Each structure stands twice: as C-alpha cells, then as structure tokens.
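Supplementary Methods S3. Complex input for the adenosine-5'-monophosphate-propyl ester-bound model.
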Amino acid sequence: MASIDSVLQEHRVFPPSAETIARAAISGMAAYEALCKEAETDYAGYWARLAREHLLWKKPFTQSLDESNAPFYKWFEDGTLNVSFNCLDRNLENGNADKVALIFEADDGKVTRTTYRELHSLVCKFANGLKSRGIKKGDRVIIYMPMSVEGVAAMQACARIGATHSVVFGGFSAKSVQERVVDAGATAVITADEQCRGGKNIALKAVVDEAIAMGGCEAIHSVVVYKRTGNAIGMSAGRDVWLHDLLEGQSATCEPEWVGAEHPLFLLYTSGSTGKPKGVQHSSAGYLLHAILTNKWTFDLKPEDVYWCTADIGWVTGHTYIAYGPLACGATQIVFEGVPTYPDAGRFWRVIQDQKVSVFYTAPTAIRSLIKAAETTATAHPRNYDLTSLRLLGTVGEPINPEAWMWYYEQIGGSRCPVMDTFWQTETGGHVITPLPGVTPLVPGSCTLPFPGIAAAVVDESGHDVEWGKGGFLVIKRPWPSMIRTIWGDPERYRNSYFPGDLGGKLYLAGDGAVRDAKTGYFTIMGRIDDVLNVSGHRMGTMEIESALVSCTELVAEAAVVGRPDDLTGEAICAFVVLKGPRPTGDAAKAIVKKLQDWVAKEIGPIAKPKDIRFGDNLPKTRSGKIMRRLLRSLAKGEEITQDVSTLENPAILEQLKQSV
Ligand code: PRX
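Predicted complex, serialized as structure tokens:
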C-alpha cells in the first residue's frame, strides 16, 4: 500500500454556487448530513422510505432488507412492480406523454425525436412481439445492438415481460457473444444487421451467426434483427425475424409482467481476476431505486433538462444512465450513435450546442483525447461552440487527472458547471461515491464523499479501518439496494470475490485501492488492486487477454499481460510473449505483433488489443515457477528494476525483455 499513500496533493477547492445550491434536490451540506444521519439511525427504514417515495409498486413491500442469507441480500422482497412500467407508463400518467424522451443523433448527424407516448407504444409492441416468439418471464435474452432507440426499447421490452437481458457491447467478438449466450443460457438474441460508427458500417448479425455456429447455442430459438443499414445479411428461416416484421400488427399496449422486487432485471458480463468474465446479476426494485435516486441527486435532473450520457448501452453506465434512470425520471435525453471524433473532434461540442444539452456525462479518456484534439486542430476547440446551455458535468469509469478535470471545468463548463466525478462499478449498479451538486465543495481528482446511505470506507488487509491519509482497500460496509445480487451460475465466486474471508466476510470489496484525505475525508481512488486493467474506462482482465493469446497455439507458448500508465487511455495493455518458434526481431517481430493484436481482437474484441507486445525466450519466474508480474510492470513502464530479484530463477531474462521494445 506504500505507493497508494503517495496521493496527489490537490489544494484547489470549488464550493457550490448559491444558485446551484438553491435549485438542487439535496440543497446544502446540512441536508446531505441529515440524510446520512437518517441512514445511520435507521438503515432499513431509510431505504424503505425512499423505495416507497420513488418507485411505483403493484404490491407494496412489507420488509426492507433481508440479511438472513448474507451475502445474498434481499431488498423489498415481497413487493411486486415492473421496471418498464416505472420508466414509461409513469410518464404517460404524469403529463409527460408528449414530452420528448429520446433525441437520437445518428452517426451521419440525422436527428429523430421519440416522445414518451411513442416509446411506450414501441416498447409494448416489441414486448408483444417477443411474447409471440414464446419469450417469457425469466428467459435470458442477449442484446447485441447499436446505440439506437430500438436498443433502448429492446431492454425496456425485456423488462416489460420479465425476461432478463444481457447486453453485449457491439465491439465484442463472436467468441465473446458465444460465451455469454452459453453462460447465460440465453434462448433469444436481439441484434441489428449492422451498426454505423465513424462513417463505417460494422457487422452485427454476421457476428451473431458466427457465434451461434461455434456451438453450445442450440437453445437460441429466435434472433430478432433490427434493420439499421439494409445491407445484405443472411437470415435463417424460422429462427431469424426482422424487427419490423415482428412489430407488424402488434398491439400498442402490453400489460406489464409484475415481478418480485428481487427478480433479475439484467445480467451484465464484466472482467474479473480470472479468464472467465462474470455475469453480474442485478435486481429489479433495488437497482431501479438507485438509478432514480442518483439521477435526481447527483445530476439533479429537472423537467427542463436535456441530458446526455455518452456511454454505450453495452456498459453498465448505458443501463443506469440511459436505458433506465433518466426515463424513470421523465428526462429528455440524447442517444448518440457515433464517435466523438467523427466527422471531426468537435462532434460532442456541436451536439451540446445544437441540442442545448444541460447535463453532460462522459469518460475521462474521451476528455483527454478531446483535449489533445483541441490542442492540435483549431476547429476542434470547444471555444468554437456555444456551450452555455450546460449546467452540470459528470465523469465516470476511471480516475480523472486534475489537469483534465480543470480543462473540463473551464473549457467545457465555462467555470460555471460543477463536475461530478462519480465513482461506481458494474457491481454497484449506480454511483456510490460522488459529489452532489448543491452540497459538495469539489476537489479535482477526488470523487469526494459517499452517496447518502452508502457505507464506504478504506480498510487494511484484515478489514480494519485505516486512518484518513493512509491508503487501503475500498469497501462498502453494509449492503445497499442496487448492489450485485450474485454472479450468474456461480454464487461461490460471488462470495469469494466480493466478501473475502480475510476481511471478515461481511465487507463488500470493491477491488480498488483508495485513500481518504486527512482533513476532509474525501475519497481518492487509486486504481485496481487486482489483475484488472482499466483501458479507456473499460474493464479488462489480464487473465482474459492472456488466455486469448495462448489460445493462438500455432504461435504462442506462454504470455503474461500487465498494464502500464498511458496519457490518453489511463492504462495500456502490455503483453510479454514467449513464442513457440525463435524470438523474432525487426520486421518479423512487427508482423507477429500485428498478427497477435488481430488475434486478440478476434477472440475478445478490438478494445482488448495489447498496445505493446514484447518477446522473450522466457518470462521472469520464481524458482517455484510463478511469473513475477511486478517486474513485468516495471519493465512495461520502462522503469529501472530496483526490486529484489533474488528469488528469480532466470535474472538474465530481464535484460532481454528490457531490450525487446
Ligand atoms: O477502478 C474503478 C473504475 O472503474 C471500475 C469499474 O469499472 P466498470 O465496472 O466497468 O464500471 C465503469 C462504470 C461505472 C472501478 O472499480 N472507476 C469507475 N469510476 C471511477 C473509477 N475510478 C476512479 N474514479 C471514478 N470516478
């Protein structure tokens, strides 16, 4: 933990403006403290009150938290509700029917608007269509869709009939799709012919076909295909159906399937410390409650806002802050199909200007790459755009360095908009440590304080609190409504990964290092403590990439993957590879690097491509054969090796790996 102790010294503080405090749902520090106090005094009662106030129940619950089978916690268990009803029907009943729910901006700039009434009708037809294919409550449905109104509608339609969806990011490979279909035991896939990104058409349906052909997917009886580009694709008679054909003649109303509060709304696969991605299972009521609360409290969403979260629906951010939370709050939001750099790096700023976006939520990597673009291309500079509609900014996914924070605050927010550095994870369902706009004085690089009711803390190896100012493991001490319920099909992995015995078995271990400021208690996240990398805000397991590399059996004998800091992407993937043949040099080495990068892209997806690949005759190992990753990490960074190498079996290998850049 010594390295964790060396926290950035940051002295700039930005208190909330009087205007922000006045408009905020949680107004002033005293209001925040009162909520924290309420949670402390009556934990279950606090969440029960919020669940009654913010969710529409078909049958009210009588018990708030059930801890009897810890760590398999249950919230509001005997209540019933429907998530899609909470997101859509609620808005038909409260005067928002003709309000625009989704402003869709396509890759080519074409804009379409969908009102709550229209979205409700699309979702109902979609839900009826799924039912007509025999898809029902409890079935698992894989969604492999582009950013689109139909993508959001697919998720909502599953929720409406009680089917559990698992969205797979459109950049993942056929192999990744196949693994998820098999692990989830899915019976249907919803996809599109192609997706459009940065002026290019990218296959989706063909990838699904390839995935199914890999075997193990025999349970898939339906593949629903949204026609995005209209280019030719194969359709398998009986199994495949066009979405427009499925919707044809369906009723525009669909009685929601009322499900228990704990009914699994979705699974979302994410990387852990082993080669196999884990299917994080979320509930219905607890999850939706936190999605609503964080949209209302962290983003302070108001009826007049135009809200834009730039995440993809393939990630958890696109679930909580696009597909569910904002809709349940009746927001008008942007759904953006394209990429930040197409047709030029001013795209984000142009969308904000043209659509008068007031709340903008994006990732530090995007900010860093747009800073670079603004420095090199005058036309990409945000000063060319009118960004005065903005009132609040947010970031998520990785630590934001104070320089990027300041640029975001000054250049994008005009030194007027508070920046919410929201810390959370796929497993937490929504923000767990975050500033609140009308409450928290901001410090660049710190995600500040826990969301009211979240018992976040920093502890040592045995689970004891560490003093403020000292680094340790980030934990959450009490279960909260939107927490992960289990890992699909692997409850033991859930228990071992998140509630390890070393820490006493009761603390939720986030997997990040953190430190609290000695004076303010503000949290700063120091990055992952396990074998998980964060590349451009995307979680990648080193073991997953290693297994992909060694599965190239024609070439690779052994591989070890580590991360190294990268100015743009936060971390970059660095692979050390031992080939079956002789160690290549020069052009031969370059050719193999390219081959292996393409291999990993095909096995997992382009986001997992190692940036650096180095070849050695061996890897640095202890006498017992364990790879010494800390040495590889130093080599990847280009650091001098100052660590103890006396346990190393083959010290000469370090010199070879050092030179093999
Ligand atoms: O390491 C932390 C980092 O992202 C991880 C969670 O990744 P994922 O489950 O893919 O969810 C990303 C979107 C919620 C965390 O364990 N992380 C996320 N937000 C922040 C962060 N690190 C620092 N500051 C943040 N605000």
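Residues 586-603 form the longest helix (18 residues). Confidence is low (pLDDT under 50) at residues 1-8.
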